[in-house]
């Protein structure tokens, strides 16, 4: 989820997972990622990028008792019909206290050529939010990657589904922000194809999401600008770059 808020002290470590980015905004994993929270953290990395503070946390799978404490009654809900593929089109949830992001449709797209440019990567992290082998019938997974360059940062939230002999589906949410802009671009793309229509693709690529993307027809695309509030209270300490903590 993406949360607009005034900067505070350090976030609650026991209740957050995935990748957080704060510029008065907070990027966190959604409800599906709650299953990755545990009572202690196995790794924790911080990085500052101008007024942004990024934190990547990896933890163990949450125990059932901890899930009940964190999601309450929601964790006991049974949704019917049950989607055994765990497909999600989650793009992020916008929340706010005094400050809120404004979301507007746009025809602007993320400049992929800029992302291909050879630029120093100052921070990188990948977090697997969930993965299931679908009773040995394929794989369903949700992961998030973030990389920070001197002039921008880029985040990819990817749901990947492969049902052996049936279909391949990929839902991507991309967030891109250039340091001199007052907004982020968010692009959501849903791709899908039946396996029967992929006979021209080497089967060895079926397990490689990055390779399969080019072969899957686009079913839906949504492009938006997440515009920052005009007034942003900044913490001077956030502007100092910190080396990643291994």
Structural overview:
The protein is mostly beta strands. It is 7% helix and 41% strand. The chain is built from 3 helices and 13 strands; from the N terminus they run βββββαββαβββββαβ. The strands form 3 sheets. It has a 7-stranded antiparallel beta sheet, with no helix packed on it. Strand 4 (41-49) and strand 5 form a beta hairpin. The longest helix has 8 residues, at 64-71. The protein starts with a strand and ends in a 19-residue tail after the last strand. The model is unreliable at 1-40 and 232-246 (pLDDT under 50).
Total number of helices: 3
Output the strand order for the largest sheet. 7-13-12-11-10-9-8
Number of strands: 13
Q: What structural class should be given to the helix and strand makeup?
A: mainly beta
Radius of gyration, taken over Cα atoms and rounded to an integer in Å: 19 Å
Give the N-terminus to C-terminus distance in angstroms: 25 Å
Low-confidence blocks of residues: 1-40, 232-246
3D shape? globular
**What is the string of helix and strand elements?**
EEEEEHEEHEEEEEHE
Please state roughly what percent of the residues sit in beta strands, choosing from under 5%, 5-15%, 15-25%, 25-35%, 35-45% or over 45%.
35-45%
Overall residue-averaged pLDDT value: 77
The level of helicity is under 10%
Biggest pleated sheet: 7 strands, antiparallel
């Amino acid at each position: 989820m993406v949360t607009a808020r005034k900067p505070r002290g350090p976030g609650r470590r026991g209740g957050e997972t995935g990748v957080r980015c704060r510029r008065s905004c907070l990027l966190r994993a959604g409800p599906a990622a709650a299953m990755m929270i545990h009572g202690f953290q196995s790794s924790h990395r911080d990085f500052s990028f101008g007024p942004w503070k990024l934190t990547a946390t990896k933890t163990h799978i949450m125990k059932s008792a901890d899930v009940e404490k964190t999601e309450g009654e929601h964790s006991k809900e049974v949704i019917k019909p049950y989607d055994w593929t765990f497909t999600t089109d989650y793009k992020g949830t916008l929340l706010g206290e005094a400050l809120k992001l404004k979301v507007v449709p746009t025809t602007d797209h993320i400049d992929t050529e800029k992302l291909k440019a050879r630029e120093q990567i100052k921070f990188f992290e990948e977090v697997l939010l969930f993965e299931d082998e679908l009773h040995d019938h394929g794989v369903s997974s949700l992961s998030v990657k973030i990389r920070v360059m001197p002039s921008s940062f880029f985040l990819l939230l990817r749901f990947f589904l492969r049902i052996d002999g049936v279909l391949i589906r990929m839902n991507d949410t991309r967030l891109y922000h250039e340091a001199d802009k007052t907004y982020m671009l968010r692009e959501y793309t849903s791709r899908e194809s039946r396996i029967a229509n992929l006979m021209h693709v080497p089967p060895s690529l079926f397990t490689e999401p990055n390779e399969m993307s080019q072969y899957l027809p686009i079913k839906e695309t949504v492009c938006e600008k997440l515009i920052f509030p005009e007034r942003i209270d900044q913490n001077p300490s956030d502007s100092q770059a910190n080396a990643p903590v291994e």
